[in-house]
Amino acid sequence: MRRTAELTVLAGVLTVGMASTLYAQPQQIITDPLLPEHAVEHVSTHVYVIRGFPNVGIIVGDKGTLVVDTGLGTRNGTRVAQVARGLSTNGQRLYLTTTHFHPEHASGQAGFPADTLVIRNHVQQDELESDGERMLTLFRSRPQFRELLQGAGIGRADILFDRELDLDLGGVHAQLRYFGAAHTRGDEITFVPEDGVLLPGDVVQNQISPNIICGSCSPRQWIAVLDRVAPLRPKLIIPDHGGFGGVELIAQERAFLVDLQNRAMTLKSQGRSAVDAGRLIGEEFAHRYAGWQSLNNVPQSVERAYQDSSGP
Ligand SMILES: [Zn+2]
To answer: Is the pLDDT of residue 8 over 50?
Structure first.
């Protein structure tokens, strides 16, 4: 029975190679909350991706397999864990980490086998415990998510780290990093040095306006995080939503945030209100960044820039 399941999963593996030109086109954000079955892509020697809401990474070594993000709710978590098991033909130990605490990334934890080792940074675990229920309630208010989130709760971690944790998976490593707040307070980044693959969560995306969602987050802090990510020099970047890309995605994301920050500070120095500046920069960016997704969040980002610069 188990063998049949493994073969089914492997039959669904698509090899797409490493050429980042394949990923040059930004892709629409996938919003179907149910991850696809039998559609895992082999993107580098050790890394596989289930493309969906969100893109889920699976790093397979000789001794261990690390899953990055769970999908929304237990049913998706079970699906991801089955794919990871199917790829772990040496009986590898299963690890799970999450890019941030939002429900499509972390609420499927209960679908993983009980012996899975769950790893997170401290800040993300704190954020999950303090703000996770509120986010679950918010997501449950959307009809398309409600059923999938039945019974979903706040997961615990077996291993917590402050700034960095290196995981030896056997022939390949996963470098788990906490560089500070960007999209949320506890954003986590995973880098696979042997393959040059980066799984940055929401911190680096492909022409999607950065969503500065946490109240204490700001463009300035997000830029500081990108300056820690850049020296990793990844060859392939797998954002958790939207299309994949090469190292150029980091500079592209940074330039957008610097532009937004500078425009906000200019308008602030001219005495404009945050609301006014948000509306004006929103209109400017709709033209300047035509083709980018989620530009409706620009006014919120401007507000965060204003707050961040107001001092205590
Ligand atoms: Zn998120």
So the answer is: no
